[in-house]
Automatic annotation (TrEMBL):
UniProt-listed SUPFAM superfamilies: 6-phosphogluconate dehydrogenase C-terminal domain-like, NAD(P)-binding Rossmann-fold domains, UDP-glucose/GDP-mannose dehydrogenase C-terminal domain
Protein name: UDP-glucose 6-dehydrogenase
InterPro entries: 6-PGluconate_DH-like_C_sf, NAD(P)-bd_dom_sf, UDP-Glc/GDP-Man, UDP-Glc/GDP-Man_DH_C, UDP-Glc/GDP-Man_DH_C_sf, UDP-Glc/GDP-Man_DH_dimer, UDP-Glc/GDP-Man_DH_N, UDPglc_DH_bac
GO terms, biological process: polysaccharide biosynthetic process; UDP-glucuronate biosynthetic process
EC number: 1.1.1.22
Active site: 261 (nucleophile)
One protein family per Pfam: UDPG_MGDP_dh_N
Catalytic function, reaction form: UDP-alpha-D-glucose + 2 NAD(+) + H2O = UDP-alpha-D-glucuronate + 2 NADH + 3 H(+)
Binding site for NAD(+): 30, 35, 86, 121, 153, 264, 329
Keyword NAD applies: yes
Family per similarity comment: Belongs to the UDP-glucose/GDP-mannose dehydrogenase family.
Keywords associated with the record: NAD, Oxidoreductase
């Protein structure tokens, strides 16, 4: 099938590359000439495990193309995916201007039937709006479909190739047939393609992410309670998660969720609710809990240093909002750095993949280490903000030797509490007994 993907950001590039990998002929379109140039020349623009190999192969085999020209890029396509940004506006609602501008442009240039697919996370009713805008200018037949993505950064290729489900929102038989054919290779294992109306598909995406965010904030509150009552959140988590109705996944407490999806999507769903005069109480609480949770370790650090962080120096391991990505958007680490620096402390940071992004954002606000152990030099304590695998079994002797005092504040519960006691660390984590 001939496919176009408008927008070569994270979602667009994964979508385009994975469709090419299943034998489709894909043209990706972006207004950023520099990006298009790089991609055409085989230079991948995002970090995503496994993507580069597929990208290089499909580029070489001439199934993947890049252009800045929308008209040329969509000319022969049967399906056009819109993978454009929907950043939160001032009031938290999703800004649809990128999508609606492209819709208008498409309306002016389409000359034959196309299926136009909203891949971006967009508020309920967007497919209708896109349909209306295109229809204002276009004389030929077309259908607008909602097909939200459920890609997790770090495992996006796998998520695309073997999705738990594919959600397709359309009431058009013609579009349904095209989309069913296109996605058939991805659901051979038996996972469902769920056909529904456009609005239900749009809401499914927000509801899924908001539910997952709720699970996290809920467990973060249970962790706080564990500390206050003297229970162990690891035990409670296992006890709770063994109930099939609840499930073991996404119950890990920590220093809050971040990234480009959860914070934005929860906020946008609250906003959408407000627009129809509904106060979504649970989600407001989920957001409040998460804001507080990002700074969960700060009072513990303050208490350990007698409320005086002036002149103290901290090593921070992990800045990405989660492991296996270089993405630092809404990363809890950034909020902690702000709080530490505001209290007069200095911070040296290390992350296996996110250093370039952090340097671009923070400049001279922090110091940068090339290696996780170099990061510890002269530090009064180590703070762990992201659960990268390389941090899970460190050389504790080296840590002890490098720190001024053996103190670790772990926002991701990486280490066994009793082991840390044996090793003689002051060790604090989330929802478990502190080692003094
Ligand atoms: C998410 C959704 O999972 C995906 O389906 C959607 O399409 C995009 O948003 P992603 O943002 O890549 O994907 O991150 P995810 O792996 O879901 O983690 C989100 C955040 O939750 C991270 O900050 C992570 O640290 C946090 N988290 C996750 C926890 O704090 N505890 C957990 O148990 C799980």
């Amino acid at each position: 099938m001939k496919i176009s993907v408008v927008g070569t950001g994270y979602v667009g590039l994964v979508t385009g590359t994975c469709f090419a990998e299943t034998g489709n002929n894909v043209t990706c379109i972006d207004i950023d000439a520099n990006k298009v140039n790089k991609l055409s020349n085989g230079q991948i623009t995002i970090y995503e495990p496994g993507l580069e190999k597929l990208f290089e192969r499909n580029l070489k085999e001439d199934r993947l193309h890049f252009t800045t020209n929308l008209e040329e890029g969509v000319k022969d396509a049967e399906v056009i995916f819109l993978a454009l940004p929907t950043p939160p506006g001032e009031d938290g609602s999703a800004d649809l201007s990128y999508i609606l501008n492209v819709a208008e442009h498409l309306g002016k240039i389409l000359t034959s039937y196309k299926v136009i697919v909203d891949k971006s996370t967009v508020p309920v009713g967007t497919a209708e709006k896109v349909q209306e805008v295109i229809g204002r200018y276009c004389n030929c037949a077309f259908d607008v479909v909602s097909n939200p993505e459920f890609l997790r950064e770090g495992v996006a290729v796998d998520d695309f190739m073997k999705p738990d489900r594919v959600v397709i929102g359309t009431r058009s038989e013609r579009a349904r047939k095209v989309m069913g054919e296109l996605f058939a290779p991805f659901v051979r294992q038996g996972n469902p393609i769920l056909f529904m109306d456009e609005k239900s598909a749009e809401l499914t995406k927000y509801a899924a992410n908001s539910f997952l965010a709720t699970k996290i904030s809920f467990m973060n509150e249970i962790a706080i309670l564990c500390e206050k009552l003297g229970a162990d959140v690891d035990m409670v988590r296992r006890g709770v998660g063994s109930d099939d109705r609840i499930g073991k996944r996404f119950l890990f407490p920590g220093i809050g969720y971040g990234g480009s999806c959860f914070p934005k999507d929860v906020q946008a769903l609250v906003k959408s609710s407000e627009e129809v005069a509904y106060d979504f109480k649970i989600l407001n609480a989920v957001m409040d809990v998460n804001e507080r949770q990002k700074l969960f370790l700060i009072p513990k650090i303050n208490a350990w240093f007698n409320n005086d962080l002036k002149g103290k120096h901290f090593a921070m391991w992990g800045l990405a909002f989660k492991p296996n990505t270089d993405d630092i958007r809404e990363a809890p680490a950034l909020y902690m750095i702000d709080a530490l620096v505001a209290a007069g402390a200095t911070v040296t940071v290390f992350d296996p993949e996110a250093m370039t992004n952090v340097e671009r954002l923070l400049g001279s606000k922090v110091k940068y280490a090339q290696h996780q152990y170099e990061c510890l030099e002269n530090a009064d304590a180590l703070i762990i903000a992201t659960e990268w695998s390389v941090f899970r079994t460190p050389d504790f002797n080296k840590i002890k030797g490098a720190l001024k005092q053996p103190a670790i504040f772990d926002g991701r519960n990486l280490f066994d509490v009793s082991r840390m006691q044996e090793l003689g660390f002051h060790y604090e984590s989330v929802g478990r007994t502190a080692v003094q």
